[in-house]
Amino acid sequence: MTPSPSTDNDFEHMFDLAPVSLWLEDFSELKTLLDGWRSDGVVDAEAHVRADPARMQQYGACLKVLRVNRRTLELFAAPDQDTLLASLDQVFRGDMFEQAISELRQLWSGSLEFSNQTVNYALDGRRLDVHIRGRILPGHEDRWDRVLISLEDNTAQIGASAAVLRSEQYARGLFENSPVSLWVEDFSAVKRLLDGVRAQGIRDFKTFLKVHPEFVTRCMQEIRVIDVNQQTLDMFGADSKEMLFKQIGKVFRGEMQESFAEQLLDLWEGRLFQQREVVNYSLSGEAVYIHMQFAILEEHRHDWSMVLLSLVDITARKKAEAYLEYLGKHDVLTQLRNRAFYVEELNRLTRKGPWPVGVVVLDMNGLKGINDDAGHAAGDAMLRRVGEVLAKAVDSPDCAARIGGDEFALLLPAADERATQALIDRIVSLLELNNQFYPGRPLSLSIGMAIAPSGDQLEAAVHRADQAMYAEKLRYYQQAGMERRRT
Fold first, then answer.
1. Binning pLDDT at 50, 70 and 90, where does residue 165 land?
2. Tell me: the pLDDT tens digits for 374-390?
3. Which of 8, 64, 379, 425 meets the CB 3.0–4.6 Å disulfide criterion with 26?
4. Distance separating alpha carbons of residues 139 and 112, to the nearest angstrom
């Protein structure tokens, strides 16, 4: 049946007035080219073209544009079809090799349709992202002399997608390269557990956690780690994210139970942004002191499905603080407590006990002579030996302190006269062992003791112990003088 002239006119109008860019092309020379390749034994057209990219120029030269519609002229900023066809080298430029390969692959496989995403250019220089769809028209399958091609301008969508991709890549770059450990976690299961407890009518959540400590453990187990950054792997000594996730139980343990209970209390009370200091552990077992900031992202506050944690390693700071605290309470030379701590402990025992309190005052004999004869370094070495003896003799909660140049004191809470004397005997025994270990000049101590039955008598007991020590020291020097005279 032959179409009537009126029908032909209708199709002409539809083609010309279509709201999408339409191209009517002749692919017959392309079919002849592809058939020739097959006759030459080509099996894989894509490999054939890649082996010699000049063959792609042959491919493009075989395509003939017969007609375009008005939308095409508008899209490519062409005043008329002749101008557009004369300027196709401006339209089809740049690297279109891969897109053309896709088209070739589909036609070579025998398909009568093809589609691909590519880039064209308008005559005014605008870059156009277009999606091409082509169809060999019915009745022309043998010669490919009529091919209808539509171009969909998706420049805006592609641009928006590219902007989103750039934004995602930027955010990912910030995340991965942050100098702070970052964790993305899913707390949605924790929220469901808390909501369940609230639904049971529980109002005093703090008491609930004390009665049900296993609830804290269960909540910790329900946290799902979504992602971590490189700094996190470095901080915890993990070679990969998979390695860290598999051994996450080594990281969150020990003191973490208590700090996580506090975190749950904050969440219960609606504090969705938190910061606190916690202790985690590296995979090698070393404690990592951390300042943690926890925030449920705004758009996920309805289900807590995305939480961002930032962890700053404050281990070095904590060690420095601990060392400063140590220096504030210890004598650097002997490693015993210093006078400031001794006075503080004396006041505490005076107020709170427990009583009775045993007081022992010790003084090293002959320090001045050692300093004069062998120098202060030798005297310091002898003082360090006193520290060794007393550190081995005294256990917590007893206090051993250096309270002066060569003077030491012990405070023994809940120690009567018998316990105090037993400790002095232990010191004397350790002193003998120390002298056997160190050759040369022997270490000698003058020791005095007293017992304070109550806090208001502690100061007096310290005075009595001090007097007893001086009496012992006097006897030591008297005996040393007689020995020198006999010599």
1. confident
2. 999 999 999 999 999 99
3. 64
4. 12
d(CA 154, CA 190): 43
Residue (of 270, 253, 251) closest to 217 by Cα position = 253
Q: Cα–Cα–Cα angle for 337, 339, 340, nearest 5°? A: 95
In 3D space, the residue among 15, 105, 108 whose CA is nearest the CA of residue 68 turns out to be 15
How much is the pTM? Answer: 0.58
**What confidence tens digit (pLDDT) does each residue in 53-64 have?**
889 888 888 999
Burial class (CB in 10 A: 0-12, 13-18, 19+), 84: buried
Q: Give the contacts of 416 (CB within 8 A, at least 6 positions apart).
A: 356, 358, 451
Work out the burial of residue 442: count CB atoms within 10 Å of its CB; fewer than 13 is exposed, 13-18 middle, 19 or more buried: middle
Bond before 3 cis per omega within 30 degrees: no
Token pair, residue 471, equals 């009496």
Note the residue count of the chain: 487
For residue 129, the tally of other CB atoms under 10 A from its CB is 18
Question: Confidence band (pLDDT; 50, 70, 90) for 435?
Answer: very high
The amino acid sitting at 354 is P
What's the pLDDT score for residue 94? 74
- What residue has token string 């502690």? 458
The helix (run of H) or strand (run of E) holding residue 377 is helix 376-393
List, as own/partner pairs, every contact residues 192-201 make where C-beta atoms lie below 8 angstroms and the sequence separation is at least 24, other chains included.
Answer: 193/218, 193/219, 193/222, 194/219, 194/264, 194/267, 194/268
Closest CA to 366 of 207, 231, 476: 476
Beta-bridge partners for 412: 358
Across 67-82, b (16+ Cβ under 10 Å) vs e yields ebbebbbebbebeebe
- Cβ-contact 30, 62 below 8 angstroms: yes
Q: What tokens were used for 100?
A: 């053309």
Contact status, residue 228 vs residue 182, Cβ threshold 8 Å? yes
User: 357 and 415 in contact (C-beta within 8 Å)?
Assistant: yes
pLDDT score at 7? 61
Strands 127-136, 113-121: pairing kind: antiparallel
Cα 398 versus chain centre, distance: 42
What residues have CB less than 8 Å from 477, skipping those under 6 apart?
Answer: 365
Q: Which stretches of 86-233 are assigned E, i.e. beta strand? A: 113-121, 127-136, 147-153, 181-186, 224-228
C-alpha 445/C-alpha 427 separation (Å) is 10
In 109-154, alpha helices (H): none
